[in-house]
Structures are given as structure tokens and as C-alpha cells.
Amino acid sequence: MRLPVFSWLFLMAIYSLFLTIFVFGASAPYFSNQQSLLLQLKNNLMRTCNEGHVIGLDLVDEYISGGIDNSSSLFSLQHLESLSLAYNDFNYSHEIPSEFDKQANLSYLNLLNARFAGQIPIAISHLTSCNFVGSIPSSMASLTQLKYLDFSNNKFNGSIPNFSMCKNLTIELILASCKLKKIPDFLRNQSYLSYLDLSHNQIFGEMPIWIWKLPNLVVLDLSYNFLVTLEGPILNVSLQSQILRSNQLQGQLPNIPHVKYLDFSGNQLQGQLPNIPHAEYLDFSGNQLQGQLPNIPHVEYLDLSGNSLDPSILANISWSLPSIRFIFLSSNKFYGSIPISICNATNLELLDLSNNSISGTIPQCLIKMTGTLGVLNLRTNNLSGIIPDAFLDNCGLQTLSLNKNQLEGRLPKSLANCSWLEVLDIGNNHIEELNLTWPGLQIVDIASNNFTGTLPIILLLSWTSMMDRGNEKRTSSKTSIPKSRADALVMVMRRITSRTNVLDLQLQKSFFCGSKAFLVSLKEFLVDTDLYAVLQRYVTPSLLWREFAEVCEFSPMALNNSQYFCDAVNKDD
Known about the structure:
The protein has 12 helices and 31 strands. By secondary structure, the chain is an alpha/beta fold. It has 4 domains: 1-127, no CATH class; 146-285, Ribonuclease Inhibitor (Leucine-rich repeat, LRR (right-handed beta-alpha superhelix)); 311-469 and 480-512, Leucine-rich repeat, LRR (right-handed beta-alpha superhelix) (Alpha-Beta Horseshoe); 513-570, no CATH class. The strands form 6 sheets. A 15-stranded parallel beta sheet has the order 5-7-8-10-12-14-16-18-20-22-24-26-28-30-31, with helices on one face. Strands 21-23-25-27-29 form a 5-stranded parallel beta sheet, with no helix packed on it. Strands 13-15-17-19 form a 4-stranded parallel beta sheet, with no helix packed on it. The N and C termini lie far apart (67 Å). Keywords: Glycoprotein, Leucine-rich repeat, Membrane, Receptor, Repeat, Signal, Transmembrane, Transmembrane helix. The chain crosses the membrane at residues 6-31.
């Protein structure tokens, strides 16, 4: 006679006969908590629980006949890593619970021959720690009504079954990270397939021409493989998105007349860009492309950084790219000046011309675009002259990166209008004065300029966004910044530095070393920033003082008499 689930769980809790429980490092309160949880399981598992350390439940072949519903306290065992309900009998009258997605740590789930009924809940696909191993059962190929199949991010071995009988795969087929060596042949017959993801595999060699002939294919992702050739032309009118980043594609691209989204970054493509008249998103960064831009009147996002393009592209941007919003043209060996015609790109939100050999001055009209321009990155060029005093009253600039140029003079007063500024990167120039405040600053680099005098502590204290406010929420109007603008800011910040909340104080000695009192007051700023927490991990207050004093060439007596500084640093800590 089979025991009902309640009686069985009661015996399990008392005798531990059929249950294996692994408890790591549980103190007495935690152990008591585990007992409580097991008693809750016995009482039809209706209540929730607090944090626990049960990580494994082995319930294989235990003649469990009752169901497990979504209110079960089983789903409160949030540390559970392994669960097996195999070879029980749910009599085809109970569905698989949909609450499995609450167990984010679950890496092993066995429901073999448990006789569940109904559909497999989508929640199981949310178990991102669950890596399936072994081969994909060939019997799955007989599921002729299958429409959606996702085997991504597992550790399958062997070959993919021939799904040629599954002619209803009309939505998605995702075989990402499945160690595939080639594109499966059964895909030839998937005439209704609209989304195909074979990324992060080991597919090498040539792209088969037949893949372009799948009549309803809309999205194709073959990124992070080892493909070397791409033949065309690609005339499939349904294909809207091609993602082949980080392969080994060589030679010239074929014509791709209908695609709107193209990402071929990180390959070895050569020659000119092909005809792509309907493209809206183009990323060909990190290739070996040359020459001019083709006719791409609808493109909004263009990343051609890390190529060898003709510098005359800059002069043609406004008329050849009337809809452009994001331009990445860094590391192209451009020379000459920034053409005024670039200011006709009135929708521009991001301009990155960094790491080139551009000379001359910054056009005033470019600064006047900061009503819409959120990111301006001109670092590592040969620009000279002053920064134009033309920032608009409604300046929306968030990133200004002018590092490693030959700019001079003082920062323009109108830059104070840029109240959303988060990245100020003006190091390695000949700038002479800094007297502006921006409360939203996150990254500051003002190193190696011609500053003189002392650095007012009030200036540092005005950079309040660097301070650690705990859980305090910022309530500025920046919540209204368009998502695209925010995304663009993240892109450029990553290119500038991988750090956040950075203050670079490698300034001229005459500017930094006004007095010992300044160094003590600097603690008031540092203690409220992430930087101070980092310093505390690696240096003592005494060593910190010596570092400051040596930079400022204080006397040996000052080096040795650091107690008052240490007291200031340690105060209230």
C-alpha cells in the first residue's frame, strides 16, 4: 500500500530513512530552522519560512502518491541545489509545479518517470544554475508539433537529433552553448522557423548558402563561433537581423539589401562596406574595413571603430546618415580637422572620435549640439586651442572626454550648464583653471594640466554623487533621460575606464599641495566616498599621509610627525 505524501513526510522527518539532507556549517539556530521546515513539509507544506541551509533532497522511488502544489513550503528551501522526485507516482493527475523558479540555486532536478501530467512549466527554463549533461534523447525528434525549443547553456555531448520531422518549429530554436561543431542539417527543412540562435558554439568553416534560403527566418545569431567565409548575396527578404560577431570571417561582405540589424564586429573582414540600404543598426567594429560609407540613409547606430576607413567619412556623415544618433569611429587613424558639416547631424546623441590623429580646434557648433548630444568623446587626438564657451542652457551632456590632447585655457563657464555631467575626463592637456561644480560627477580625471594655486575642498565636497549614501535614492530629473542615452553613456564609460566613482588627483604639485591642512580636510571628502573604503583596505593612515607628503615634498619632520593626520583620519571611524 502506498503512503500518502503527508504520512510519508512525517516518517521522513523522524527516521531520516528515505531522505538525505546535507547541512553545511549550520549552527544550532539554523538546525532548528531546518527541523521546522521539515515539519512544515509534514503539515501539507502550507507555510513559508526564513533562510535555510538544506541543499539536497533525494526522494527517488519513495512511492509518493500525493501532489506538490505551488503553495508547498518545498519552494521556500531557497538554498536547495539538488532535488530528485524520480520514479514516484503522481498518477498523471498532478502537474509539475510552476514555482521552481524560486529556487535559483537549484542545479540538479530529476523528474524521471514521476508520472506528472500537463505541460512543462516555463519556470523550469528559469533555473539558470541547472546545466543538463549527456546527450539529447533522439526520441525528442518525434515531437512533430514542437514549436519552441531551447537547449541553450547546457553541457550536452554527442550529436543533435534530426528534427526534420518537426516542421512546426515556427517560433524559436535556441541551441546556444551546446558545443556544436557544425550547423545541423535538419535546419534545411525548417521552412517556418523565424528565430535561430546557434551562438557560443564551436561551429567552424563556411556558412552554408542554404541557411539564407529559410523563407521565414527573421533573426539569425551565429556569434562567438569559428566561421571563416560568408557567401552571398543575401537576398532573403524576411531576414531582419544577423549577428555574427566574434567569428573569423575574412574577405569582403556580400550585398545584404534587406537586413536592418547587422553585428559583424570582431572579425577579419576587409574591403568596403556593401550595399545595405535598409540598415538601422550596424556594428562592424574590430575589422579591417577601408574606403567610404555606402548609402545607408536609415542607420541610427553606427560602430566602425577599429578599422582603417577614409577620413573623408567625417565630412559626409550629415548627408549620408540623416537619421544617425550614435556614431563610434574611434581608432581609425583619421587625420585632419573635425568638419563643420558634422553639426548637421541634428539627431546625434553620441559621438566617439577617440584614438585618432585629428587636429585643429573643436568646432563651436559641435558644443552647441549638447542640447541633444549626451556623450562627446574626443580623447587621444591632437586637438588644440580652447574649449568653446558655447554649452547650451539646456545642456544634456553626460560624458565629456577630452583627455590626451593639447587643449589650453580655462574650462568654459557655460560648462556649468551641464548639470547632468557624470564623466569629466580632461587630463593630459594644458588647461589652467578649474572652478566649476557638477553634483552628478561619477568619474573625474583632471591630471597633468597647468593648474595653479590650491584645490578648494568645497569643490570636492560638491561632487556629491561620489559619496556613499547607502540606500538613499537619487531623485533628480535624470530619471527622464532616454534609455538610449543612458546606454550610450555606459558604453563610453566602459571605454574610458572600468572603474566607477573615480577621482584622479594626480595633479600638479603646486595645485595639490597648498597646505597640510588641506590634506587633513581632504579626509572629510574621502571618508564619504567609495575611494576611502578602498584605501582603508590597502594602506594605514600613516602610510597614506606619507604618500601625500612625499608627493608634496614636505620636510622629513612632516613625514615623521603624522599623528595629527592619523587622528583626523581615524576620527569617528
